[in-house]
Amino acid sequence: MDVRPRFVLFGDSLSQRAFEPGGWGAALQDRYARKADVVNRGYSGYNTRWASYVLPKVFPLVSSIPSPALVTIFFGTNDAALADQDKAKYHVPLDEYKHNILLMIRHVQDSSLPAPALVTIFFGANDAALPDKLSASQHVPIPEYKHRLSEFVQHLTQLSKKTRVVLIAPPPVDIPGRKRYATEAYGAGDEWEPERTNEHTGLYAAACREVGEATGVSIVDLWTIFQQDDNWAEYLNDGLHFTEKGSAVVFKHVLAAIEKLPGQPSLAFDDLPWDYPIHSDVDHKDPKRTFEEWEARKTGV
């Protein structure tokens, strides 16, 4: 089936909120407009343990989808009834018959959604919650976090030989920003203690890097990337989630990772075809012919 490739953003709130105004997912969709569809599968508050129950539903393996391996299309005996005889009501003119058969072929070919061309896996911010603080319910120990990330990669690479994966490590945590948020959101006082720390989150970022290296998938290490800027706290609006400035950095590095992905077909913007003819290629005197020829090339019919 020849449709736009899908890029799926799978993660926690840092993915769910990626389509906010100025968000990194919105920027990615804007960049790939008319070339790829960027699909949001972010689940706010989720850790890798909870996401493991969602993964097979969001990304079902081909073997679990009851789609046919073969379809036979066998019509024509009745369509061929003579137009002026007893069975005239069954008659279908030859041009319409051919048109209907083509529609059936295309429908069968398009009856199942292809595997995504790209999946970003972006978890860790919640897994890294401290086990004895306010967000303890979200905490996942590092060994389990690594195991589940590895399982995610293994599952996604089974979808198709052409599915590429990019792991995104969690960003750093700005403690002053978290405290300001806690004070403004629910009146936290001097007794407030952080539910996450930058140092602890750094351990999860390192674990994410290790999984990427072990599985051979691309990695965008936001924990390290952000802290290369002395003013990295400006990238986070509450010490955890992205400002527009932070999203711009995420977009820049995710796009760079996509552009460099190995394998074919290339997912670089310049290498992907436009979906349907660009307007300057449409024959304004006979637009129907332009689109019929385009569809014929796509389907090979």
From TrEMBL:
Name this polypeptide is given: SGNH hydrolase-type esterase domain-containing protein
Phylogenetic placement of the source organism: Eukaryota, Viridiplantae, Streptophyta, Klebsormidiophyceae, Klebsormidiales
Source superkingdom: Eukaryota
UniProt-listed InterPro entries: Iah1-like (IPR045136), SGNH_hydro (IPR013830), SGNH_hydro_sf (IPR036514)
Domain SGNH hydrolase-type esterase: 9-111, 112-248
Family matches, as Pfam families: Lipase_GDSL_2
